[in-house]
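Per-record layout

source: Hermetia illucens
name: Transgelin
length: 187
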Amino acid sequence: MLLITNADEFPQTVAGKRIPEEEAQAQQWIETVIGERFPPGVRYEDALRNGIILCKLMNKLAPGSIQKINVSGGDYKMMDNISQFQRACTRYGVPDVDLFQSTDLWDYKNIALVTQTIFALGRCTYKHPEYRGPHLGPRPAEENRRDFSEDQLRASEGIIGLQAGTNRGATQSGQSFGATRKILLGK
């Protein structure tokens, strides 16, 4: 169990879950999709914090999904950008379990979850044929339903697959339970 005795230790424990390679992939994908680079010298989480880049990303994936991006104003306006991004992600098809909370990004509580949301959004692009840009992450599995006739199901009942082990039956060869052992000392 993890015990945090000092509030200053908390960001380091959460930072331990972060994977820099995934953050770099997410950043590169975002930059490619929106057609602009993150501000130089600004950390990944700081560039995303005000929600402007995230809103631009959503508008590239689903044009018009975010009507107004707040580029100036106080903290409330920037938090509104993050909320708009989350709502647009839901409409785009990102599952609720993959969405980060606004405070995860705004208060730097869980940047790894922010990256997970970006990857989930990247996977959703496969399901939108109108999107022609690059994808992020593996293609989601599609349903591949199989229908078997009663004869096929009955025929399979007599087959012992190799997943069940060998079909030669159990033997006692190699067992030495109860046999005496010779222990030779001094040789």
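summary: Residues 1-7 have pLDDT under 50 and may be disordered. The domain at 8-127 is CATH 1.10.418.10 (Actin-binding Protein, T-fimbrin; domain 1).
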